[in-house]
Amino acid sequence: MNSGVMRTGARSVVLRARTRFHNALDELSLNRHALIGSALARIILGGLGFYLYARDYMQRAYLWGPDGSWPWQNFTAPDGQQGFSLYSVSRSNAWFEIVFHLGMVFAFLFMVGWKTRAMNVLHYVFLWSLHQRNPVLLDGGDNVTVIVLVFFIFVDSGARFSLDARHRKAKRASDSNLFRFRIGSLLHNAGILAVILQICTVYLVSGMYKVQGRKWQNGTALYYILRANEFGWPGVNRFIYESATLVVAITYATVFFQLAFTFLLLNRKWRLFAVAGGILMHLGIAVHMAGLVNFSLTVVAVELVIMGDAHYLRLAGAIRRLKGHPRTAEPGTTSADKPAAPNPGEQVPPSAAPDPVLISS
Fold this sequence. Notes:
Layout: H1 2-30, H2 35-55, H3 60-64, H4 72-76, H5 93-112, H6 116-133, H7 141-152, H8 163-168, H9 178-212, H10 214-217, H11 221-226, H12 238-241, H13 244-265, H14 268-288, H15 293-303, H16 309-322
Helix pairs in contact: 1-9, 2-5, 2-15, 5-6, 6-7, 7-9, 7-15, 9-13, 13-14, 14-15
């Protein structure tokens, strides 16, 4: 009798585990999370790539060209540290101009979200090639960018605020595309998770390295950082580094925050604080260390992916109320308060599964 009870209990445990697994699989395959955050990140990352091309456009031959400041023999040396680059295919100026301008176009198209996945791949290849051409011009944001762009290949970053999203509004799918939608959703959510893990790794590793530094231990690191001529803002940074209290407080707060960031994300109540703190910290870096603007904004873009769509919708509602605008209907409902057909890129509830909307995967 005891063995029968044990078998019944084991079957019950297995059944509950199987039910939870199927529910989780349905939730992840029928809903694409962080669509707004990934769209905002796409716009910033694409915009930073376009800015890199536009910023150096008039000096492109000197900075990136075959006869530029970084010698060609260093760039193409067999024993060098550079990886594959389209710029190494030919030393002709004509080839350089073609590759440079194509990279600029692909960065812009990725930013506005036209054929987003294809532009994501092309932007990654051309941006990586540019980074390899002259590594001395980079500030660290390039490492985060190229890693995140790989993950973004699987993310449906064109579902919001893009030309693709406007095109999808008139495009509905048949039941036969439900499997494709589910696979695309699983890949999207896996890509979002990979991006979040990447930013957590950046914070944790950075915090661990700081803990080992003597200047970070005695609270003086910020003083020397703000005095760096390569990145500092003369006449502004001195208002901070001349205050010993501010220097020590911000130095220790930076270390504690970076070490705690990953653990704060595990608690839903502290998640907004963690993201807001990270954004403010890197905006401060962008202001007080003008040479690291690209790095700072890259990290800010990645952090925007952490927040769910519900957070952004509540924030938009709060802004509308502050402006005195009347409350509008929730997305996905008509003026008659009846459920509307789901738009491409939106989360598809299980009840809508028999009639899914095609999201290009």
